[in-house]
Amino acid sequence: MVSRILRRAATLLGVTTVPKPDPRIPPLVSLREAARILGKHKNTVLKRARAGQLQCARVDEDGEWVFVRSHIEWVAKKEAREDVS
After folding, report:
1. How many angstroms separate the CA atoms of 71 and 15, rounded?
2. Which of 61, 67, 75, 78 is in the most buried spot, having the most CB atoms within 10 Å?
């Protein structure tokens, strides 16, 4: 699923073929994977995405979302530190 989303994202960026990872496209994850990394329900992640709290984009007419993996991991670590405090 993520490879299909990556192809769509590449098309939106004007990259016609992606034989190897394109340095212009940061590693992306699906909504489901972002929710897993954050330890949240996907609806919670979607609400935060719509509120502009997460780096993400809607990539097609079906409304699929992709999230920047490094940002999601950073948010997860930040929230884990806040939970400990």
Report:
1. 23
2. 67
